Amino acid sequence: MTFTIHGLPVARGIAIGRAVVMAGRVDVAHYFIQPDQVADEIARLRSARDAVADELKRLQQTIAAMGPKEAPHELSAILDVHLMLLQDQELVEGVKHWVAERLYNAEWALTTQLEVLSRHFDEMEDEYLRARKSDLEQVAERVLRYMKGVATPVAPPPRRTEPSRQQDLLLDGTVDVPLVLVAHDLSPADMLQFKQSVFASFVTDVGGRNSHTAIVARSMDIPAVVGSRTASQLVRQDDWVIVDGDAGVVIVDPSPIILAEYGFKQRQAELERSRLSRLRHTPAVTLDARKIELLANIELPDDAATALAAGAVGVGLFRSEFMFMGRHGDLPDEEEQYRAYRRAVQGMQGLPVTIRTVDVGADKPLDELHRAAAHLNPALGLRAIRWSLSDPAMFLTQLRAILRAAAHGKVNMLIPMLAHVREIRQTLALVETARAELDQRGQAHGPVNLGAMIEIPAAALTLKIFLKYFDFLSIGTNDLIQYTLAIDRADESVAHLYDPCHPAVLRLVSETIAECNAQGKPVSVCGEMAGDPAMTRLLLGLGLRSFSMHPTQILAVKQEVLRADTERLRPWARQVLEAEEPDLLLEVGSAAPTTRL
Ligand code: PEP
Ligand code: MG
Predict the structure, then answer these.
(1) Confidence of residue 163 (pLDDT cuts 50, 70, 90)
(2) Is the per-residue pLDDT at 311 higher than 80?
């Protein structure tokens, strides 16, 4: 029966496909194997299962040799249960099914079947049996850990966009059915894995519109809905789902009429995209001849190609922290970082690249350990530059790598989350130390412009200090909104209060732009506001001339730029700033002066 789940829209577009539900683990590889690899893949699973069974038996022997004080009887009983679960027919046959019929890789098949069985356990009346779910999860975890450490996958993951013959075999001969990942939560690091994976869309129970998970979804340009609260419980494995990333709605088990309606919407969106693509080579100049800089936000060095293809005139924000995440404490060394930054610089073919120093913490934990160790309020904790300054050796490693990459092209260095002049001085001193260390080694490095992010109200209110020390500023509206309004950007329960148009936010943005313009210092906006076409005219009216956004947004924003007259927008922008409810003046059809093409 058709039903609808409401969440928050985060990444535009519509996906129609089959659900892959993962309420538990998502950090395993997901890819399709070739039909002739099925036997090997099942053998890989079997040998992992046998190895884990041997391990459990050895553990039992050790326990048997101990006295009842050191190893209580229950421990041995638990291991009995685990051994039994390892051989469970439903587990074994189910996993084989996902490998043989759907061509899922072994880890994916195991977690999928685990999900199916977990639901069975949840529905059990008997409390004792219901509690066996956690035993099953522990057993599966052991097998996954074994496979991670020992066995190598039979095939590298193909990119999501590659048409794959395997997909033709899916779903009883239905060709190329997109898969929609439905999960309780996804970390930004999980999302990066999906850049390489098979999912065409995703839905999560938790998360806000400007959480980093949502931001990566937008950068991947895949329809997504977050903050759905219950999707991972209500949607079942393999259900047909429609994800409407514009409306923030998930329709489960849609009727043929609804399917047809959404199929039509999908085609309309495609047409709109191809219409916009004609603007790719058009310079971003307003009607009153103001040249506007449209830059790209990227997460990985190879995203430079996407940025160039979208017509970006540089990278305004390279979120370097993605290279640091999901590595279980094994952070990238100077050489690895240098090569990555150099790849981005060379990839931009002479256009400038703004590398932001690492911004982990808050909703971007380095890994699970880091997440667990986070303090009660990680958004206000050891995050971004605070984290970097807490470990100068680690920070110097990054600074040297960036300076070395600057020998290969135009590089700007951007520092996140500064608030205190002390932090500014410490940071600048470390940049000088890094340079001196490279000189001492005789290693080549290049000049960099130094910029600060304005993302804490305290920074926006002390601009003169920032302008004294830095060559340019970049307004991080995602955090500026979070910290001005005291709204956790990743918390769906307060998402309705996360308001980019709050008069206080607009005032801080406006004053930052005005002060920079008055002093002739470059300023850009690199938060999500810059990529939202509904905000373009306002930002132009406030005097902004440089926008940094996901490459996927560049053409839509450029369209707004081409239609704008900044002189006429100026007085209107002032009115917006003065309004009690500025968003009412921004709505489509409002009195904003534009000339339509
Ligand atoms: C911001 O805060 O606006 C920003 C661009 O940085 P991030 O989203 O990575 O916190
Ligand atoms: Mg930020």
Answers:
(1) very low
(2) yes
Ligand 1 touching residue 359 (CB < 6 A): yes
In the numeric block, which tokens belong to residue 6?
């409401």
Is residue 565 in contact with ligand 1, taking CB distance under 6 Å? no
- In short, whether 239's Cβ falls inside 6 Å of ligand 1 is no
| Contact of 480 with 530, CB cutoff 8 Å | no
Instruction: Please determine whether the domains at 3-24+155-254 and 284-564 fall in the same fold group of CATH.
Output: no
Structural domain boundaries in the chain = 3-24+155-254, 35-148, 284-564
Q: Name the nearest CA neighbour of 569 among 184, 362, 338, 288.
A: 288
Query: How many A from CA of 421 to the centre of ligand 2?
Result: 19
Residue from 453, 508, 523, 524 whose mutation best tests the ligand 1 pocket (most atoms within 8 A of CB)? 453
Q: Show which residues are catalytic.
A: 212, 526
Instruction: Kindly give the distance from the C-alpha atom of residue 537 to the centroid of ligand 1, in angstroms, as a whole number.
Output: 21
CATH 1.10.287.110 fits 35-148, yes or no: no
pLDDT at position 364: 75
Q: Looking at domain 3-24+155-254, does it have CATH number 3.50.30.10?
A: yes
> Which ligand has an atom closest to residue 417 CA?
2
**Of the ranges 8-12, 20-24, 178-182, 447-451, which is most confident?**
447-451
> Nearest-5° angle of CA 166, CA 13, CA 549?
110
Give the Å distances, CA to CA, from 490 to 69, 187, 207, 226, 273. 46, 11, 5, 10, 29
Determine the distance separating the centroid of ligand 2 and the alpha carbon of 86, expressed in angstroms. 45
Which CATH code is given to the segment(s) 284-564? 3.20.20.60
